[in-house]
Amino acid sequence: MKGKTLILRFAGIDTYAAILVNGQQVGSADNMYLSHEFDITDAVKFDSENTICVYISSASNAARKKKVTAWMSGVDNILEPVASRKAAHCFDGDILPRLVSADIWRNVEIYARKRNPV
Q1: Which CATH number is 4-112 given?
Q2: CA dihedral defined by 44, 46, 48, 52, rounded to 10 degrees?
Q3: Is 10 in contact with 29 (CB distance < 8 Å)?
Q4: Which long-range contacts (CB under 8 A, 24 or more apart) does 108-112 make?
């Protein structure tokens, strides 16, 4: 892979996550609406098996730690949806009102691209 950069791309992670390749953190995610790309070239072992770990953490707990101003407050003073980049319907519903989703919800891929000489 000389002259190439290896990219690990997540099309959707819901929502807060740390991404590790072979025990080395290569990035993090905090927005379920965006794709996330990480340069994993230095973390990959080309002569052996590799491991990718995605540690997803609680969106509710992360949102509670954020400072939310009065103009951001939601209905019934539920602040989690407005404090995080996560779809509001994921925080409550008719059947499971406090079962907040957390997962990899879209495709994951690894691809190589030419190194940028700049």
Answers
A1: 2.60.120.260
A2: 20
A3: yes
A4: 108/8, 108/9, 108/10, 108/11, 109/8, 109/9, 109/11, 110/6, 110/7, 110/8, 110/9, 110/40, 111/6, 111/7, 111/9, 112/1, 112/4, 112/5, 112/6, 112/7
Average pLDDT, the chain: 81
Cα-Cα end-to-end distance for the chain: 19
Q: Residue 77 above 70 pLDDT? A: no
Amino acid residing at 25: Q
Mean pLDDT of all residues in 78-105:
65
Note the pTM of the prediction, 2 decimals: 0.76
- Arithmetic mean of pLDDT, 28-47: 92
Per-residue pLDDT at 68: 65
Domain ranges of the chain: 4-112
